[in-house]
Hints:
- The protein is an alpha+beta fold.
- The chain has a single domain, classed as Translation Initiation Factor IF3 (2-Layer Sandwich).
- The protein has helices at residues 11-24, 42-53, and strands at residues 2-5, 31-37, 57-63, 68-74.
- Strands 1-2-4-3 form a 4-stranded mixed beta sheet, covered by helices on one side.
Amino acid sequence: MERYDLRKYKEEKLYNRMVEIMDNDAKPGEVIIFMFEVGDFTPVTKSMEVMKEQGHELLNSIKFNEVDWTLVVKRKAS
């Protein structure tokens, strides 16, 4: 299990970075934790949609504090 701090990424680059991590860094079946900033709820919803479109399993989505969100995703098996 790895945690990636993506708080420095703005919304337009956030999703591409998530996909890049899942494709290149995560092993099949590995659980990844993404942390990112949210202003409104849009990045949360969009990031969940992107992960599902890529075939990964969403395990959890939690508000970490007032501005940060964590998304827990399991990479698809292959």
